[in-house]
Amino acid sequence: MNIAVCIKQVPVSNNVSVDPVTHSLVRDSAENTLNPADANALEEAISLKERYGGKVVAFTMGPPAADKALRTAAAMGADELVLITDRVFAGSDTLATARVLAASVGRYGAFDLILAGSESSDGATGQVGPMIAEFMALPHLTELKSVEAVEAGCLRGVKKFKNGGAQVRVRLPAVLTLSYGCNEPRLPTFASQIAAKKKNVTVHTNEDLALPGDAVGLSGSPTEVIDSFEPEKKKNAAFLSGSPAEIAEKILSLIEEGNNIVIR
Length: 264
Description:
This protein has helices at residues 36-52, 67-76, 94-108, 128-135, 190-198, 206-209, 244-256; strands at 2-7, 9-11, 17-18, 25-26, 32-34, 55-61, 80-84, 113-117, 140-151, 154-161, 164-171, 174-178, 201-204. With 264 residues, the protein is α/β, with parallel strands linked by helices. It has two domains: 2-215, 3-Layer(aba) Sandwich (Rossmann fold), CATH 3.40.50; 234-264. Helix 2 crosses helix 5 and helix 3 (94-108) packs across helix 4. The longest helix has 17 residues, at 36-52. The chain starts with a strand and ends in an 8-residue tail after the last helix.
């Protein structure tokens, strides 16, 4: 079973700067890491490879520094790595990003499964996985909690649904997105991290993918951020004293007045 996993490098915290013109995150100025939900997707892919054989290929789109996320994927167990990078991709929204990822995966080879995290910690749209499926004309399942089996050309799993789960099945090849926390991503060993640094990375640029200039980057992004701002942070503390009944009455009064109450 050959599995592609689309991963993303995201800022470690919200302490990142924003370009005043494009209103996009300036990722070069922040410490970055592998998107948490993508680590769950990688774990699921590697587990499936261990059960059914095949290989896992990790794809990421970003600047050359996104190579760090690929090295993490290799240390976890990804067999091959693909970095999709080109200045014309800068500023891509979810639609343009999915178009580029789909083109890169399609160019690389045939896959039984294409996996991704259900959403990224910096955007949290949950759109890229389903959009990849649409561009590749493949069926898809989103927010899977687990993959139970692959049999007779179909995959059976459990999809996150309200407070529980729903049994689902899809014919392969297909695109899946995995929910954050659905499994426990394995920790790379020291030896696997050393080996990951030496692993070859295939690079795809737009010269390789041959996508129209107006289909990628800011030009190919129908979503436009027209403004961005940092919300004002206010903290009001109220120290309450008295009997439990009196304190409860005071809390009720504060709530009725429209105050945000945090009890520690």
